[in-house]
Amino acid sequence: MNVLAVTANADAPFLTQQVDALEERGVSFRTLPIAGEVGADVDRSPLDYLRTVPRVLREAGPEYDLVHAHYGLTAPAALAQLRLPVVLSLWGSDVHGPAAPVSRLCAPLCAETVVMSAEMRAALGRGTVIPDGVDLERFHPEPRSRAREAVGWPDDEYHVLFPYSPARTVKNYSRAERVVAAASRRLERPVGLRTVSGVDHDTVSTYVNAADALLLTSDSEGSPNSVKEALACNVPVVSVPVGDVPERLAGVDPSVVAGDDRELVEGLVAVLERGERSNGREAAREVSIERTAERMLSVYERAAGRRVAERERAAVASR
Q1: Is the separation of the CB atoms in 136 and 284 below 8 Å?
Q2: pLDDT in tens, 292-315
Q3: Phi, psi of 119 (to 5 degrees)
Q4: Low-confidence ranges of the chain (pLDDT < 70)
Q5: β pairing state of 256-257 and 213-216
Q6: Is the pTM of this model over 0.90?
């Protein structure tokens, strides 16, 4: 199977991991990134998405079986070509944020739509739920003291991981600051809020293992990879109930899902005082990259099944 992937973030680790896992299963990819530059505090303009349309029209030839559009704003460019079926993957902010109208308009026109959580499917009214997978070989428990030594964090403090840039307003860093400051006033040891972003993905596991807990205060999410990575490392999570987090943390102890600041503070204090690892790795197996890749392959087969079958029959006939 040959897939043309149109994406707003070709370097996203969760995307490259998915591509690698699907390539191991016989899928070939050509990735077409949206034009323009993007950063933590810089978004692409509508013109960047518009400039991508001619590139998709030129590239989407008969050698491909489908176009996979990653993120709602890429869907118009993917749908502009009429030759190939389109699979649309929605990430979360494109269902709950400003891009939502584009996603709602385009999703019914696609052969298949993939969402990260049941919450997203309910909001959109359609979609196959496939969270991004976590690499259990890369993310695994390590001794906390050794991880702290590697990242340079002192061993006489509590360390709460905030794995995003504070510039990403949807992640609500100011709320994380409030929660950690309130928790610190109730504990004998100081509590540090550690923001980690822009580091090499190979080192992220070390930062996760160095933390006493991961704190998620986002206004909205689909299926946050940071939570699944913490689960894989048996690191407790304290989170607001966004996306699929309540589902992911069901049965995970210690970990807390809380809706207001008071409950978040109470939960964080309890987790830090216990000082224990969680049992999250077992829960993370449900969303391993291997399992999610198999489910995505099934979506591809549904979307492009007729084209693939016709090509295979033609190949047999030509022998």
Answers
A1: yes
A2: 999 999 999 999 986 666 666 566
A3: -60, -45
A4: 37-43, 306-319
A5: unpaired
A6: no
